[in-house]
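Researcher: For the record, we're logging two predictions in this thread. I'll number them. Prediction 1 follows.
Model: Prediction 1, sequence and structure:
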Amino acid sequence: MARLRKKRPNRVLRSEKHPESADPRTNPSRWRLLDQRGRQTWHYLQSDEETKEWPQSIADRYFLGLPTGLPPLPKPETPQKSAQNAVAYFSQLQLPPGNWACEYGGPLFLLPGLVIAWYVTKTPVPNHISIEIRRYLFARQNPIDGGWGLHIEGESSVFGTAMNYVVLRLLGASEEDKRIVKARGMLHKLGGALNGPHWAKFWLSVLGCMEPEAVNPVPPELW
């Protein structure tokens, strides 16, 4: 793990050096996290009136990387004081139903299936969702070879590169964007999407970009 981290410096900072990183972004002050008995969904408010009626919570600001407005905690002098600081801080992040939210970031193979399903079912993708998905994937792109891995710390693979390349193109990224060109070159270098695993071939066949015959059948007994 230490070796991977040494090879992979902060990708967000790396990607911000590219001219294309002046991509559109949403207003972070308009996002709200709704927790309905543990079911957590993000909502983007469209008007100033809505933001006044539904103010951001401390938890909202925490997960968005915004200043929480919480006072600084006293410097702990003992392990017990440190634990008390932790309790005091995280108690402020508790959501109304009594639970805590959790960011499920890291895997790079789940989002492609969702976006492809949206596309084939002709489900409209709100612009604010499309913008942030593109920003996230470009920020997690390998700055050296232009690919993506199984997760944000993984080596570039056919699976990660093919699927996230497809997602970006479906959501409007230009084929002439230098980051897209670099990703396409990496996919070719890896041998193309036919070298991908089962899930990649399955989703590409659902999309209509690959013949179903390329997908190896999986007997239900294996599940």
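Researcher: Logged. Prediction 2.
Model: Prediction 2, sequence and structure:
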Amino acid sequence: MARSISLKQAYWFLAACGALYVTFISILCTSWAQKHAVYIHKLHTLWWHDVDKPEQFGFLKNQVQPLHITTPDGETLYAWHIVPIAKYIANEDHLINEHTTSATRFHKSVGFDLLSKDPNSRLVINFHGNAGTVAQGWRTDAYRSLSSGAPDKIHVLAVDYRGFGLSTGTPDEQGLITDGIATVRWAMDVAKIPPERIVLVGQSLGTAVAAAVAEHFVRVSEVEFAGIVLIAAFSDLPTLLLTYSISGLIPVLSPLRPYPRLQRFFLGFLRDRWDTASRITNLVRKSQRVNLHLIHSKDDFDISWKHSESLFYAAANATSPSGLSMKQIEAVKLRQDLHEGGSLESWNSDGMKRIAKQIVRYGGHNRITTYPCIARTVQHIFEQ
């Protein structure tokens, strides 16, 4: 009798879980729910942090200047310009004595002059992942790390996409790509930084934005940047969702793995696809001198490092007009064993197109952005 009751309880518990899961997936089929699940743009710390006061995050007075960037479709993006520490120290009196600059007066600031008037300045444009703001989590530590390779030269520009933080609008794929293009346009047209002194860095969702932006510029105007660094990238959103769990806890489509037709059915409702693999393939094919670096941690439990491996082969394959088999790539690629640091593989095509993939053992999904392997990669790109 007791056993019968236990079986019934287990049955109803599983039935309830199944019903909740079906309800959850059905809700995710709506556009509104997808925006909030994919971009998580309403989850942030603005309730107790003021991004207009960067000193709260460990920066020196006026080391960070907020600014606004206007997109072609009328949205206003909130961004940070971070002065590298050695450049700050060399101009400390001017920066400290300057009245704290507002986002609307950035172009009249000392920081803007240090960026735009120095022919030796270099710029990293950072595209962050989903959720939060430019000041969320490990991001502020990542900005400090990014310039550490050349703390007298490497400035950082970090932007909040539409709907994130203090930026206006609501996020979607085309909107975020427009934001990325507008940010790069600002750097080239307003700050007067030529593309050969710019590196695009993206993490997680930001890798899809960075890849789309780089592909746009090489396709539309044949503009190429010093390099592109993609940290914890994914090949495309549908493929990612087959194994992805929200916050590492709530599986999206993996429970339907035994039912591929059901997976395809639900994926058909997906509005934003973020097909980075296709965009990278097109970028490499149209580029004359692409310098692409993929960096991923083996202990990333949000996005598997296998995605970066897939993107590496897609990019290497695109360097040949007739395509390359995986066997051909494996036979020619260079590999360096970094022991506990992981491994570094590279593919060079005629000395003009370089594809590199570094798989590190540690760093997780977010903290890896603060690790020296990222700063070293950025510095190597600028040196080349």
